UniProtKB/TrEMBL annotation, chains A, B, C:
Residues 10-135 form the SnoaL-like domain. Pfam families: SnoaL_4. It comes from Novosphingobium panipatense. Transmembrane segments: none annotated. SUPFAM superfamilies: NTF2-like. The lineage of its organism: Bacteria, Pseudomonadati, Pseudomonadota, Alphaproteobacteria, Sphingomonadales. This is SnoaL-like domain-containing protein.
Amino acid sequence: MRDDLASRLQALEDREAIRDLIARYGPLADSGEAGDLAQLWTSDGIYAVGGMGEAQGHTAIAGLIEGVVHQKLMQDGCAHVLSPIAIELDGDDAVAVGYSVVFRHDAGEFVVERVSANRWSLQRGPRGWQVHRRDNALLDGTAAARALLSLPVARRRR
Amino acid sequence: MRDDLASRLQALEDREAIRDLIARYGPLADSGEAGDLAQLWTSDGIYAVGGMGEAQGHTAIAGLIEGVVHQKLMQDGCAHVLSPIAIELDGDDAVAVGYSVVFRHDAGEFVVERVSANRWSLQRGPRGWQVHRRDNALLDGTAAARALLSLPVARRRR
Amino acid sequence: MRDDLASRLQALEDREAIRDLIARYGPLADSGEAGDLAQLWTSDGIYAVGGMGEAQGHTAIAGLIEGVVHQKLMQDGCAHVLSPIAIELDGDDAVAVGYSVVFRHDAGEFVVERVSANRWSLQRGPRGWQVHRRDNALLDGTAAARALLSLPVARRRR
């Protein structure tokens, strides 16, 4: 019974840790903390942004934040707002799906810059839960973006 | 003491299950998985969309996703982004309130198509937590939409 | 071991209580429940809105909701949509960071009225977790807004 309680507690802690990890992405991106942001990923982690290729490893992922495109966005004023996520736990692996919406300040107004499907593959290791791979794709009507949202959910409900 | 821990754990698990259930709505809607989406509801569940009537039961709710309006939205590119929710647990019943924001891709840009108040009535049954009734209303200044947001919160704070 | 389980459970309950507290802000604001909204704060709590000064105490915070600016927004139709938050627990204190996005209904469409960084300082007292201070700042490119997002995250990752 005690073991049962402990394993149920562990599952909740895992979900909480994953939720917290993903909730840190936006604040780290929008405050420009490139090094801390990269540490959300494993050392061989991948951030695949649809249409912009893949960044692999901490240096490359930090480079996305340090690069001119993101720095210009920060100067304008931006918010990377991530939605609540649905999470599938599977031992030391997990998948989470949700959305990211980027708002940009432009001439005194806020515009919706990007709306993307997000699929996160996460792993538990010596440093706790980290992102192994994040796939983003603009929800612009393409089947590829919709596919990012469909996998883990379908797996669970069947 | 062990029973106390177990009941506290159960309450957290209930809240987590409800949060996860609601977090699945958007990804299922935007990937067009009508059948799986309908299974979020009980077999007699209702989805009441302000100004568009009520859909009751799995076939009718799946029909909202399979219908021409939603299919057109998916072709354009859309995201049904649901906010975090406030949850009131009451045994095998629960109420949750929050927001849904629908973004649509239009001529290379993203527009805010709809912003709605959401009130969810949930029930725990043999298949776990499911939606018994979801009420949506556009936040367009009408008192009915505001009322959806006010009930469970007021109940708790008094 | 039982104590260990109890303290782990407590930490999850604390995080859940804080998440729920913050999820109530939007629904209370958008349904105009000024008194209940103010009770989210401690009696000496502060709501500091960048560029608009600070409101301290329940009467002053309720006044923000009862004031003409907010009442006009409600008449137009509005949604104060708060993002998921990253939370740092430290005993009876906590810090949470996230975003708030205000949508306004305007001539049949929804516009993005404000996008702000939010930093919450929370305290546990006899009435449970309450907000001690909330700082908001428009993400308009100013360093002050970015700074609100950077603190607790940086503290944790080091």
